[in-house]
Amino acid sequence: QVQPVESGGGLVQAGGSLRLSCAASGRTFSAYAIGWFRQAPGKEREFVARITWNGDSTYYADSVKGRFTISRDNAKNTVYLQMNRLKPEDTAVYYCAADRRNYYSGDLVPDNSAYDYWGQGTQVTVSS
């Protein structure tokens, strides 16, 4: 079993940067694909980024492409989300989640129902 724990959230001005971390216990963490999602008040949870177990494939929502970078260090059981050029619309609770299935046919990016384990979230607030 894998228990993800997010950290690194906070308050930042528009145009600034934050790096979120998703750390997990369990020897099998490195076998999981990890996704980042976010949920703003009154909105549904939405996909942000995803990385496969060895980092050979990464995926991004159009809204963050070119500004956010997902990476992982399996030796540290940690996945990172580097967020640059932040905008007020990036304000949300950010969640990481683990998916035991790394690859989907047609290079499909799965929605949140595919993920097996979820963290509790970390708040990111971007002021204008």
What's a quick, concise take on this entry?
The protein is an all-beta fold and 128 residues long.
What does this structure look like?
By secondary structure, the protein is mostly beta strands. 0% of the residues lie in helices and 48% in strands. The chain contains no helices and 11 strands. Strands 2, 4, 5, 6, 9, 10 and 11 form a 7-stranded mixed sheet that branches. It has a 4-stranded antiparallel sheet with strand order 1-3-8-7, with no helix packed on it. A hairpin with a 4-residue loop joins strand 7 and strand 8 (78-83). The chain is globular and about 40 Å long. The model has no long low-confidence stretch (mean pLDDT 95).
The value of Rg in angstroms is: 14 Å
- Beta strand count: 11
* Oligomerization state: single chain
Shape: globular
Give the low-pLDDT segments. none
- Our count of helices gives 0
As a percent range, the share of strand residues is over 45%
Order of helices and strands: EEEEEEEEEEE
- Helix % is under 10%
Descriptive key words:
128 residues; 4-stranded antiparallel β-sheet; 11 strands; mainly beta
How is the secondary structure organized here?
Blueprint: E1 3-7, E2 10-13, E3 18-25, E4 33-39, E5 46-51, E6 58-60, E7 68-73, E8 78-83, E9 92-99, E10 117-118, E11 122-127
Parallel strand pairs: 2-11
Antiparallel strand pairs: 1-3, 3-8, 4-5, 4-9, 5-6, 7-8, 9-10, 9-11
